Amino acid sequence: LAVTVSPFRDQTGALNGVVAVMHDISRIRKLEKIRTEFIDNVSHELKTPVTAIKGFTETLLDGAMYQQDICREFIEIIDKETARLSRLVHELLDLSKIESKNTQIKTKSMDINKIIRDTVAKLRGQIDGSGLEIKLSLPGKPVIAKANSDMIDQVLINLIDNAVKYTYTGGEIEIEVSEDDQNVVIKVRDNGIGIPAVDLERIFERFYRVDKTRSRAMGGTGLGLSIVKHIVELHGGIVGVQSTPGVGSEFFFTLPKPTNNKS
Ligand code: ADP
Questions:
Q1: Where's the PAC domain (predicted)?
Q2: Is the ipTM here above 0.95?
Q3: pTM, whole model, 2 decimals?
Q4: Which atom of ligand 1 is nearest to the CA of 194?
C-alpha cells in the first residue's frame, strides 16, 4: 500500500488539512506482472515456430532441397509450424477481442442441441480420423439458451478438439446436455489421459499447459481453454472441469436460459 499526502490550504495559504490518497500498489504490481508474463509468453510462443520455419528453410536452400526424402520431411515441418503460427495469431486476436472491456455480445434464444449437432457434424472427419467414438446425450426436445451461436460453436470446437487431442485411439467422447430452472449445462467428457489435480485450477489460464511438449506436438497453443472461459463468462455462464489422470476429463459450461419468451 502506498500513501500520497497533499497539503490542503485555505484562501490565505494557511494549512488547514491534508488529503491522503491510498493506492493499492500490490494490485497494480500484480497486474503489471501478469502483463509482463503474458508478453514473455507471446514472444516465446511466436519465436518458436518462426525459428523452426527459418531454420528448416535455410537448410533446404543450403542443399537439402535436392534430397527428395529430406526435402519432403522438412517441408512438412514447415507446413505444420506455419499452421501453428497462424492458429496462434488468430487465437491471440480472438482473445484480445473478447477480453476488451466493452465487448458486447449479441445473443439470441436458440436450441443448444442444434448448435452441438452442427459443430459435431463439422468436426466429424477429424473425430473419425482419430479413431474415436462420439456419443451425443441430448434431450429429445429443443433446449433453449441465450447464446451467440458462433461463439458457442468456438467453445465446443475447443473442448472437442482437446478431447480428441488428449484421448488415445479407441477412446470415447460424450457430449451431454441437461437443464435446470435457470441454466443449460453442457458437458464434454472423454476417457483420455486426464489432468493431474495440481494443474486443474490453472488449466484455464492463458498458455498454461500440463505438458508443453505434448501440447506443442499436437499443435496446441495453450490458449484454447482461456478463450472458452472468456466466451462462457461473457454469456453469464460458468465453466469447470473434473478429471482423473488415466481415467479421463469432464469439462462443463453453463448458459443462462431466456428469462421470458421474447428474449
Ligand atoms: P492446448 O492448445 O495446449 O490444448 P488449452 O488451453 O486448450 O491449450 O488447454 C490447456 C491444457 O489443458 C492442455 O495443454 C492440456 O494439458 C490440458 N487439457 C485440456 N483439455 C484436456 C483434456 N480433455 N484432457 C487432458 N488434458 C487436457
A1: 1-37
A2: yes
A3: 0.83
A4: 25
CA dist list (Å): 119 to 44, 124, 151, 155:
32, 9, 11, 10
CA atoms within 13 A on the CB side of 98: 24
Report residues whose beta carbon is within 6 angstroms of any ligand 1 atom: 158, 162-163, 166, 190, 192-195, 203, 208-211, 215, 220-226, 249
Substitution candidate for ligand 1 out of 95, 166, 218 with most atoms within 8 A of CB: 166
- Tell the residue nearest (CA) to atom 18 of ligand 1: 162
Q: Which ligand 1 atom minimizes the distance to the CA of 193?
A: 25
**Which among 157, 152, 159 has a CA at the least distance from the CA of 184?**
152
Q: Coil, strand or helix: which one is 21? A: strand
pLDDT tens-digit map of 173-200: 999 999 999 999 999 999 999 999 999 9
- All cell numbers assigned to 196: 493431474
- Measured CA to CA, the distance from residue 77 to residue 66 in angstroms comes to 17
**159, three cell numbers:** 473442448
Question: What is each CA distance from 39 to 49, 93, 95, 99, 207, in whole angstroms?
Answer: 16, 14, 14, 15, 11
Quickly tell me which residue has 419468451 as its cell. 261
Q: Which atom of ligand 1 is nearest to the CA of 216?
A: 3
Residue type, position 187, single letter:
K
